[in-house]
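Researcher: Next sequence.
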Amino acid sequence: MARLLVVDDDEDIRELLSIALGVAGHEILTASDGPEALDVLAAEPVDLMVLDVSMPQMSGLEVARRVRATPPAPEPLILMLSAMGDPDDIAAGLAAGADTYATKPFNIKSLTRAVDTLLRGRAS
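Model: Next structure:
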């Protein structure tokens, strides 16, 4: 199916998302912070990023801004994932370049569906 990059500083969340999205048929790459995510993107094309907002060194918002400013080819879709669910936080994520925004805690089936919906939208 698609190649996904899961970016989260929480190892348990990275592992949960990697397993669930892998079972859904996707190839999974991971990164534990923003700089590592940018390194992965420079080396590997991905179709979609699941990107945490609150991370050390570089926030997911900054990662999204950098990806949108100088996108790799092809430009990945971005599903921003955050514990911050205030409308202003969601608006900031979308303004930074996210295609959609999901909040933690999350339902893994709903998140998998959101990923598939984004990828289907790109394919059409």
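Model: The helical segments are 11-23, 34-43, 60-69, 87-96, 108-123. Residues 3-117 form a domain with the Rossmann fold fold (CATH 3.40.50.2300).
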